[in-house]
Structures are given as structure tokens and as C-alpha cells.
Amino acid sequence: MAVHHRWVCGFLMLFLIAGCTKDVPRSSESVSKRPAPVQVFLQTDTTSPVWYEVAQESLGLISGPADSQVLPFAPWTIAPRLIGFVVTGSTAIGGLNRDGFLVFEESAEGNLALYHIAGGEAVSSCSSMTMVLLPPSELELESSLPMPALLVARDPYFADLTSVTASAVSSVTAPAVASETSVSPVTPLPAEPLVTLDLRDFSVRSYRPRAFGPAGTNVEALDRGADGAWYIKAAILDDSGWAHEPEQSGQASQTSQGGQPEQGGEARQAGQGGQTSQGGQSGRTSQAQHITGLKEYFAAQSLTNEPVSIGRGAYQTALQPQPFTSLPKMVQQLMRSFTDSQRKNHFPVLHLVRQDRPVQELFVADPGAKNVVPLSGGESEIIKFIGYADDSNAVVVLPDGRGVIRRSSGLAAFSLPQLPDGFVYTGIVMLPHWIIAGWEEQESFAVGSAGFLIVKL
User: Fold this and answer.
1) Poorest-confidence range of 19-23, 327-331, 443-447?
2) Nearest 10 degrees: CA dihedral of 220, 154, 263, 319?
3) Is pLDDT above 70 for 398?
4) Which of 31, 86, 187, 310 is the most exposed place for a label (fewest CB within 10 A)?
5) Angle subtended at Cα 444 by Cα 441 and Cα 450, rounded to the nearest 5 degrees
6) Residue 67: exposure state from Cβ atoms within 10 A (0-12, 13-18, ≥19)
7) Beta strand pairing status for 361-364 and 322-323?
8) What is the pLDDT of residue 244?
9) Radius of gyration of the chain from Cα atoms?
10) pLDDT higher than threshold 90 for residue 63
11) Given strand 127-134, what is the order of strands in its sheet?
């Protein structure tokens, strides 16, 4: 009986241990809650490259950009497009404007799973301004994984200007007749403008970090300075969604800021500067200022901290591009070896995504470096490069796809497939066995078709 008693006790003990263990969260349990991938690409596959186009909340396989849908051009804040990438470990995450997230996850076997995660109404009703990768501590979360996030905002440059009614628009030519109050309802401000993706189960949540200030703030830009602080550009509006009157007239002017795609600067110039520089448009300018707000600038060491108000000059200084000498040595080698370095008059600019970095970084050639001519009189040509780097691999390409790559086998010439006229590559990231690149059809600040490319290495 004693033996039997010990057996029963042992059984009960195992039962209790099993019951307790069942309550402990496991990564496999989180993974099981994930949606099914759109597609899984095997490392042994011979089909490469693979092209996708992005449309309103959908993806579509195509044979190439030349066969994509013919879409009307729309401002970059409205058009479906990839706004940027972040990378953590063997996972790349892309942000889709007015849609959500793309996740490219490489397994230990080298297979690539593609997921499309909708961001819900919080994303679809607003413009996606910035893609960031946050440590959980930035949002005071109990997660061990970095968290990709989209900053969404009421469109500060284009969309809300289209809400002005016909009678208000007529004020451009007949300001004495039109009423300045004839404006249709504008898009509500997002109450929680930071939309995050949990990489464990791909759940989506929205937050308003303390650094974003109180409700009524339309946060338009979020960037990380070289000093490690967060820098924020926002429009301060009242409860009705209208802008406060400016305290100083000098605050009205705008310039291109960090954290935006390259065409963002053109968009800001066309969408804002053009309205104030032409005669007879004071009525429309007043409408635009009431809708979009006048800008204020803030800094915070952490998103959990209260923001500190700073001037526009301090904001711009903190987000100055870094010199090429600050690049990893491996990336410097790629830039030096690039064939376009043979041009006599050019000014290289590199948009670089790095593994586990919170934001895309901007680097410019050092003054006085070989083949760099100071920008004066419009004689020098700005050449944009896009690239990716981690501890052992790097790739840099021009918007037309020509570039160089560095892997364990050494440095080599590299090219993405050629694009049709009017199309460019807008971003690139690299996993152990795959490259993903965003592409779009551009015309000034407007975008037509857009999508991404998957290439097996």
C-alpha cells in the first residue's frame, strides 16, 4: 500500500505541475494565433523575382510593374504605397500607407513567409507618416520583442485641403463672394496616433505616448536624433479640430523634416509654399491654416516622458543628416566602390535602414570629400541612394536598381530588375537569403502604381 500511496502522490504532483505549466505563455501559443501567411516562399524555389502591387487594403501578384494597374496619380500622403521598412532579427516589416503592415519573416531553414496585417480604421482613415521600431520600454509594455509602429496623422499637406467646398475654392478667384466658413467636415484627429504591431501574434494596438502631448495635437513627424532623443513635429488644434492662432508670425513657414520619404519635401513645398507665394490666394491659405494647423516642435528622451517644447531651428539642427564618416566601415566601402562615384559633380545622399535601429537614417557626403562639389547655383546633382546594413551584410542601390552588395563572399556588383520609365525603387532591406524592395510610379509629389519586390539571394 505504501508503494501505491507514493505512486498516487507522484501522479498528483505531475498533474499539478502540468496544470501550472499550461498557464505559462509560450511563443508557440502566440504564433498559433497568427493569421495565415499570404504566401510562403521556399529557399529551394527557383521562381525569383516575385512582384506584388499594393492597392486599397489588398495585395496582388503581378508579372512586373509594367503590368500593374493603371491608377490615377495621388499625393504621397493618400496613395497606397510602402512608406518604409524596419528590421529586427530575421524579420523585416514594411509600413503600408492607409492600410497596415507587411511582415517578411525568414525561418531557420531560409524560407520566407509574407503576412499582410490590416491596421484597421485607425490606419485606413489617416496618412501613415513614419515607420519606427520601438523597444517595449518606450510604451511601458511587458514584451521582450521590439515593436514596429506606424505614426498616423490627419493628412497635413493634401487630403484635408480637398475638403474645402466648391464655394470655398472659388475664393481663389472671387474672395469677396465666397464665405471663409464654407468648409465640409475634415478627418477627425487620431486620438491614439501610434499604431503598433506585436510580432508574437501580429495583434495591432493603438497608443498615445506621453511624449505626444494631450489630445488635439496632430503629430505629423516622429524622428530619432543622433543624440538618441525623439523629435516631434505637431500641429496644435483645439477641441473642434481647428488650429490655434499663431503666437508669432514666423512660425507659419515650413520646411522638409526628417522621417519622411524624399518626395515629402517636394510635397510640402508644392502643398504649402505654393499657396502663400502666389497672389490672390489668401482665402485658400486661411482655409489651409485652419485645417492643418501651424507647427510646433518638441523633444523627449523617451516616449514615456513629457515633451519639451523647442524651436524649429533646434529641431532642424537635431535632425541634420550624418556625414558618411559616421557610416559603418562596410557601408563606406560600398559607397566608395559605386560606379557613380566617377561623376564629377554630384552630392550623394544615402537613406539607410539598419537592423534593430528605430528609424531609417540619413547620411550625406562629407564636405570636401572626393567627387563632392558643394551645392551652389544648382550646378551639383543630388544623387539619392537607398540601402540596408546589419553586422555582416549590406546593400546599396540607386532608385533605378543599380548597386553593390556585401556578403560573406565579399563585395560584388548587384542590380535589381530594371523598372519602366517613371518608376523608382524607394527602399530596400536584406534578410539572410532574401531581398525586399519597395517600388512606385512617381510624378513629382504624386504616386500612381506601387508595390514591392522579393528577390532570392
Assistant:
1) 19-23
2) 0
3) yes
4) 31
5) 20
6) exposed
7) parallel
8) 53
9) 25
10) yes
11) 127-134, 147-153, 194-197, 204-207
